[in-house]
Amino acid sequence: MRNRLTKLFTYLFIIVLSLTTTGCSAISSSNISQADILKQDVEFKSIKKLGEKDVSSKFISVKNTLSQMDNATTDLEEYLTGNHTQAEKDNLYAIYLNNMYLYNDVLKSNLELDTSESYPRQERLSFKANGLQFAYDNMQLYLDEYSFNHSLINMKYLGEGAFGMDLDMYYQALKFSKYLSNSWKYYLSIKSRENLYLKDVAFSMYGPGDYTTVNMYELGKWIKDWSNFFVKYPDFYMNDRIQKDLNLYVRYYMNPLQNECDEATPLTKDKQVEWKELLNTFNNSSNAYKILDEGYNILKTNQFKTNDIFMKFYNGFNI
Length: 319
Known about the structure:
Layout: H1 2-20, H2 34-39, H3 52-58, H4 62-80, H5 86-118, E1 125-129, E2 132-136, H6 139-145, E3 153-159, E4 162-167, H7 169-176, H8 182-202, H9 216-232, H10 239-254, H11 256-259, H12 269-279, H13 287-301, H14 308-316
Antiparallel strand pairs: 1-2, 3-4
């Protein structure tokens, strides 16, 4: 019962956060443009603009990377609760989150190396994650060693008994949305929904081959939300990352393997309806809409079977 109540609270929080950023509340900070934010060069303690070279060369171990993430989050909380303008708060958070993404990439790339060099490879420990028992080399030792002030990471199942670390975007939304402008609230509400789905339902974005474990309804929801976000906030700080994700989501959505269709087998009636309903529910001025609409119509002219025209379009599109 307690777990159910916790999940209910979590999803209610995301719904409320989404509503406050899509028209149910209007605060002056929502009118701050991203261009104005980026003009303000804000740094605070451990938080300053970093690039990939800064992170990869300076923080070479999992433990050091996690410590840097934790310290930066403590500094961010101090800044956001201080006497600063909304633009300054948004700017520092943008720098902070971009750094968190860079640190997260370090975790992913260094975890296996750090694990294998720190402990004997023959040691294998079991631990509980996502309600199931899996084994992974010494991961429990990692978890037991680290004690931080902030819940910055999730353990994510990677397949074949392996786990990795990933940035907890629900924590980011819960902790910092109240200090940020509407564009950031909206961004974090979408990211936290994705994060919770991957944590509680699908475990991983990626399946075998060119395939995703995310169901088509949820994937369509992400495409629609990010497309609408793009239209509403065309100069948002994280739009390059959003565009990269959108490209991936749209590719998965149209993937013949994902849809179980080919030159001989048509797209099922249910999936035809689902695809068409998705097109009817989000902004038709967005690039994602135009790509999905064109892909749908190419299939439709060929009785919803793939052909060379569709495959050329599928392999060549870019949002």
